[in-house]
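Entry 14. Structure prediction run on the chain below.
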Amino acid sequence: MNLVSIVRSGSALAGAALMVAAMPAVAQTQTSTQSAAINKNNDPNRIICEKQQEVGSRLNSRKICMTAQQWEEQRRRDRESLQDAQQRSLEPNSG
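Output returned:
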């Protein structure tokens, strides 16, 4: 090996070492960004708006905004209502 090839291989090794050393910093930045997004999505007080179709119309819709906690409560009540209706439909008529 001559001096030029030694210098080239040495600089290649140094470059590889720098890339490996920088990887944890990049991973840490991505992780902190992802955790910030997760924390933002877990906030029960964040406002979420959804468009909902008007009953009886194919064209009209309205925008409804509630907190994440209110949406969760609404979905829970809807599930319970549906389960109650299904249970009542399975019960034999007593009259």
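The chain is about 65% helix and 15% strand.
Filed with the rest of this week's runs.
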